Amino acid sequence: MTRPRPPISPALAGAVDLSGLKQRAQQPSSGGASAPAGGVEITEANFEAEVLVRSSQVPVVVLLWSPRSDVCVQLAEVLAGLAAADNGKWSLATVNVDVVPRVAQMFGIEAVPTVVALAAGQPLASFQGPQPPDQLRRWVDSLLSATAGKLSGSSDSEPEQVDPALTQAREHLDSGDFVSAAAAYQAILDADPNHAEAKGALRQITFLERATAHRPDAVAVADAAPADIDAAFAAADVQILNQDVVAAFDRLIALVRTTSGDERTKVRTRLIELFDLFDPADPDVITGRRNLANALY
Length: 297
Prior knowledge:
By secondary structure, the protein is of the alpha/beta class. The protein is 53% helix and 9% strand.
């Protein structure tokens, strides 16, 4: 067993998983590999709730995996079986490194599969590579023993109940029904103005509805008319949708430098909206905000 890695930043509250939502928007009913059965699929939006907060109740075992690896899939199946057998004593969370690379980066992994155990928001132990089922059983038992009586949950507690309204909102989002999802999340936010997942989901939905409506050659159109603000906005949306985040930020920051008055305010406002789609601790966002400040002042 390797030594635990450094503590993981809790800065993902309200952040988004644009790559996952892009797949929902563009690839409905995809037949590709899905998250391993029996685990909670982690995104940037639910990382805080399902990993950091949940680990204050019961140990959370995070599997960082890729569906392209048979070893990963086999390990996922064994862990899912152990989690089911232990009936809520610990939680299995899965991170598909191909879909949410920013979450994977927070763990500082070097290879998949990697497994990290957390309690009270802090990593306790980790290992890389495949493990025999009996060794995994002993590893989990050791984890449960080390955390016994130290967390708010207990081995006899019932599994955490999810708000039915939140479940319905997630189902709408998973099915790609953005209109119903937006309405459901807005109702949740009306009842709880600080609800992190609802805030993040609404930002995602608003962005995706706008970005997926742009013409596919939006980047080329903007490149041909560098002074056209609306064309630049469309191009930046498409670039973010295609995971070219830095290029999108740079495009609008360059436009800030060449505009003034109301036009500059308009571009700055859109940039800040795009920054807010991501974890504020993301290096690209930090750099983008610094470059924006330099362009303004």
